[in-house]
Write a structure and sequence with these properties.
The chain has 215 residues and is mainly beta. It has a single domain, classed as Beta Barrel (Porin), CATH 2.40.160.20. The protein contains 1 helix and 15 strands. It has an 8-stranded antiparallel barrel. It has a 4-stranded antiparallel beta sheet with strand order 2-14-13-10, with no helix packed on it. Strand 11 and strand 12 form a beta hairpin. The longest helix has 28 residues. It is elongated and about 65 Å long. The two termini are 46 Å apart. 28% of the residues are buried. It comes from Kordia aestuariivivens. This is OmpW family protein. It holds the Pfam family OmpW. Keywords: Signal. InterPro entries: OMP/PagP_B-barrel, OMPW.
Amino acid sequence: MKKAILGVFLMLGMFQLAAQEDVKQQDTNKKWQVRARFISVIPSESASIEAIGGDVSISTSYVPELDFTYFFTKNWAAELILATTNHDVEAINTAAGNIDLGDVWLLPPTLTVQYHFPIGDFKPYIGTGLNYTIFYGADEGPVADDVSYDNSIGFAFQAGLDYALNDTWFLNLDLKKILLQTDATVNANTALGATVGADVDINPLVIGFGVGMKF
């Protein structure tokens, strides 16, 4: 009887080890993650404006965002972040007063390399990479005849946390700082009799919260 009981326990132990190995194998096979986040893009703006001086004010934007992550190893991964945002732009405290420069759309795909620190169900991570921002759909507002923005490339820094709900689904909190600068040209010949250039630092902080899936 003792031998039979011992045999049962040995079999249960073997099944337990096999199940754990299957889970590990499943986790190994799940190289991809996709997340859907809701993000706030908060500019930390400043500008050097030719001729008329002053500064710039750029509005905060709230939008959905999608990203894809591929794991090369348990710890190392690469993430591609996709979203588009719309911002109101105003030149403030210039020699001509405050000038409404309308709004502009930004498409800032960002690729980061991440290092993950698995701690049970928690997986904090840090990352760094590059951002390329495309400016499009600019509405020049009531004063300018035309406003144009140069596309820009810059560094991005990231920190975040995944929390596993089960083997497939997880919650995510993510912070990114993007070093973003553009050269803007404001054609305001009708209202101001001048075309004005500006060196604009946007440098947004991006805060996101969402849900993800491993596959």
